[in-house]
Specification:
By secondary structure, the chain is of the alpha+beta class. Among the domains are: about 5-60, Roll (SH3 type barrels); about 220-350, PX Domain (2-Layer Sandwich); about 360-555, Substrate Binding Domain Of Dnak, Chain:A, Domain 2, CATH 1.20.1270. Helix content is about 45%, strand content about 10%. The chain is globular. It is found in: Cytoplasmic vesicle membrane. It is a peripheral membrane protein. Belongs to the sorting nexin family. This is SNX33 protein.
């Protein structure tokens, strides 16, 4: 039930999940149960979002005191349903429909496909982390009856006794910067492994940082979607034949296997734009058009996977492509699910160049890419809508109009037969043939999208997914920049050792180099993919209109000897 409240203090939002409130502003609270010290409600300007529970008081008409104290409320109490953590595209499961991908992993796998969540935060030994007082930038004048502004509680913070002064954690514990573990990595809270078996190198190229190429490049074909059954025909599914060029030995995988791999990739590679899988479909999964569409898009997905210097070397991906033995498959699958070098720990595997990069230059480059990716996302959506409408016209409108034109020509021909003495059979037949030619042209228009527009839409769909990943990845870099600036300010004020500030800057360089390498890889692939897409579209258009022209020329010659 909504409750009225009043803001005791002003609060400035820092991200899209929060809203700003002003002192003495009237608010609407959706539920008085706080989640980790935060409430969800609406301010007087109609904005809805989160704000600190300790910054407001609920107005009660039947109570001697209208103040509700949240300082003793248990953080994170279960059962609070007023807030749902916002969806993150970089870690959400692809598709909202459940199809045959829900059942067990055939008869050669177990049902365990989810990594168990850790019971406590790293380094806490199973005990909750003590809270720190959040340093605030607000100045308040002392006056009679003044109530001091409460400090905001922060989760996962380190004990003040552990170090002299630490950079504050983000107040919003739902942001991808926090949930991904990158904040903990920047602040040095991700424990170093005694032995790191994998390493991914970044080197300086002509256009800046780039991933070191895979020393053993390969491609992989996706072919022969085949309907298969199990349980004596009760269960049906489609399998795809995958043939990696480096072993030239095929394996057969279902879409659910692709889906398992995709979620492993999202879980592990925090700062990489993992290409989205083709969407799921609730009905019509065995229709020929859907199967063909999924195959085309899996081919593009596989092409991007094998071309990525990091993703192509991932042990889980290699296992997915190469393993043919039932026992070895289960062992490799479990090994991938127990991989410790995921999320923030993945950043420990990245080796960066020694070249100096000015953080402001990096930030400017990231801002330019952010503006570019937003504009490209808008233009890709625009072209997708136009191409989709053109497909609809090809299949429906164009075919229908050419059929009408053909019927009209044939009606003329039939009318000319009505008066035999003046009827010229050669002319009548030529006009009738012209009508049939335009009906044929209409069918050609209906079939043409399979040759050109479908490939364009497949490529655009892939890039919509890739572009949708970058806002969260850029947010990670922005959060890292903010921590560097804050640590340097604290160091200048003597509240932090310079050595500690340098450590934060060094770890921020890892995130910055990784993002720039990913940006460069994206541009490299974008140029190749859109060049191929446009060349293929134009070639197919030329061939199409040549075929139409040939049909019309044959018909035209029927009038030559009349």
């Amino acid at each position: 039930m909504a409750l009225k409240a009043r803001a005791l203090y002003s609060f400035q939002s820092e991200n899209k999940e929060e809203i700003s409130i002003q002192e003495n502003e009237e608010l609407v609270i959706f539920s008085e149960n706080s989640l980790d010290g935060w409430l969800q409600g609406q301010n007087s300007r109609g904005e809805t979002g989160l704000f600190p529970a300790s910054y407001v008081e609920i107005l009660r008409s039947r109570s001697g005191s209208n103040y509700t104290d949240y300082s003793s409320s248990p953080a994170g109490s279960p059962g609070h349903d007023f807030y749902t953590a916002p969806a993150n595209p970089s870690i959400s499961y692809q598709g909202s429909f459940e199809d045959d991908d829900d059942d067990d992993w055939d008869d050669w796998d177990d049902a365990c496909t989810v990594v168990e969540e850790p019971r406590s935060a790293p380094g806490t030994n199973g005990h909750p982390s003590p809270s720190l007082q959040y340093p605030t930038a607000y100045d308040h004048h002392q006056h009679a009856g003044y109530r001091p502004k409460p400090a905001l509680e922060r989760q996962d913070s380190m004990s003040s006794s552990k170090r002299g002064s630490v950079v504050g954690r983000n107040l919003n514990r739902f942001s991808c910067f926090v949930r991904s573990g990158v904040e903990a990595f920047i602040l040095g809270d991700v424990p170093l492994m005694s032995k790191i078996a994998e390493a991914y190198c970044i080197e300086m190229g002509s256009k800046g940082p780039q991933w070191k190429p895979n020393p053993h490049p390969f491609i992989c074909s996706v072919e022969d979607p085949t309907k298969q059954t199990k349980f004596k025909g009760i269960k049906s599914y489609i399998s795809y034949k995958l043939t990696p060029s480096n072993i030239n030995s095929p394996v057969y995988r279902r879409y659910k296997h692709f889906d398992w791999l995709y979620n492993r990739l999202l879980h592990k590679f925090t700062v990489i734009s993992v290409p989205h899988l083709p969407e799921k479909q609730a009905t019509g999964r065995f229709e020929e058009d859907f199967i063909e569409k999924r195959k085309r898009r899996l081919i593009l997905w596989m092409d991007h996977m094998t071309s990525h210097p990091v993703l192509s070397q991932y042990e889980g991906f290699q296992h997915f492509l190469c393993c043919r033995d039932e026992k070895q498959w289960k062992l490799g699958k479990r090994r991938a699910e127990k991989d410790e070098m995921v999320g923030a720990s993945f950043l420990l595997t990245i080796q960066i160049p020694t070249e100096h990069q000015d953080l402001q230059d990096v930030e400017d480059r990231v801002d330019a890419f952010k503006a570019f990716s937003k504009k490209m996302d808008d233009s890709v959506l625009q072209l997708t809508n136009v191409a989709s409408e053109l497909v609809r016209k090809h299949v429906g409108g164009f075919r229908k109009e050419f059929q009408k034109l053909g019927n009209a020509f044939q009606a003329i021909s039939h009318s000319f037969h009505m008066d035999p003495p003046y009827s010229l059979d050669a002319l009548n037949n030529a006009i009738s043939h012209t009508g049939k030619t335009y009906e044929t042209v209409g069918e050609m228009f209906a079939e043409q999208p399979k040759n050109d527009l479908f490939l364009m839409l497949d490529t655009l769909s892939l890039y919509q997914g890739l572009l949708s990943n970058f806002p969260d990845i850029i947010h990670l870099q922005k959060g890292a920049f903010a921590k560097v600036k804050e640590s340097q300010r604290m160091s200048d004020e003597g509240r932090m050792d310079q050595e500690e500030a340098d450590g934060i800057r060094k770890r921020c360089r890892v995130v910055g180099f990784a993002l720039q390498a990913e940006m460069n890889h994206f541009h490299e692939r974008r140029v190749a993919d859109f060049k191929r897409m446009m060349q293929s579209y134009l070639k197919q258009q030329i061939m199409f209109y040549q075929r139409v022209s040939q049909q019309l020329e044959k018909t035209l010659h029927m009038y030559d000897n009349l």
